[in-house]
Amino acid sequence: MNPCADATLLELVPPSRIAAISHYSQRADSTSISLEVAHRFRGNNGTAEEVIGLKPDLVVASSFTAPSTREAFARAGLKVLYLGIPPSIADSKAQVTELAAAVDAPAKGAALNAKIDASVAAARWSGPKAPALLWIGGNLVTGGKTLLDDLMTTAGFSNQAAHYGLTHTGHLPMERVIADPPRVMLAPEGAGHDSDSRAAILRTRAVTETGLKVTQAQFSRSLVNCGGPVIPAALARLAEIRKQVR
Q1: How far apart, in whole angstroms, are the C-alpha atoms of residue 106 and residue 97?
Q2: pLDDT for 144
Q3: Which pLDDT score, from 0 to 100, does residue 204 have?
């Protein structure tokens, strides 16, 4: 039921052990795995009736799961692991370890965390940090105290949204950006993601007409949603962009 767990489970267990994945993993705007891979699995819509009917040995759900659904799982006697949204690289690694233990794959979890550690070492930036905004879609940006904030900081960016005082994730008016612009703006591309949105069109127009010295770079929507096995690819992309900014 947790799309971020879907991405991690693919690293931990063979496909035959995955009875179903979240329907969010089968949507282009919310998946962290390729749609080709996602559609090889049965999807579930997260209803208690549907999940109970699958008779799984383990349900991996979000910490935001509704109380009524939790109660239904408890009445059905299901073993459930509730996972929250990790706010840092370290917390994401701890979640990998927790999930790996739950599916009896601690060695696989350790191997995945080793990959994450290697990607952190490869992407770590020792010079001055470039102020950047990471647009998730429309006027929605990622602020401080988030995993994306930790990834940006590691790769050599300072989070301009945090500079504005935004914590977690929230909406940011373009007027604020124009008045105190970042050096870099990162945004997803592709129809249905952000490039065709009214907010994205206004951003591009604002940068062009005001002459702001802002580098705009693509940061795939698939790198925004989750941690775990997504971290190495996200850090590699951020590091690539940072090297291009002068």
Answers
A1: 7
A2: 94
A3: 79
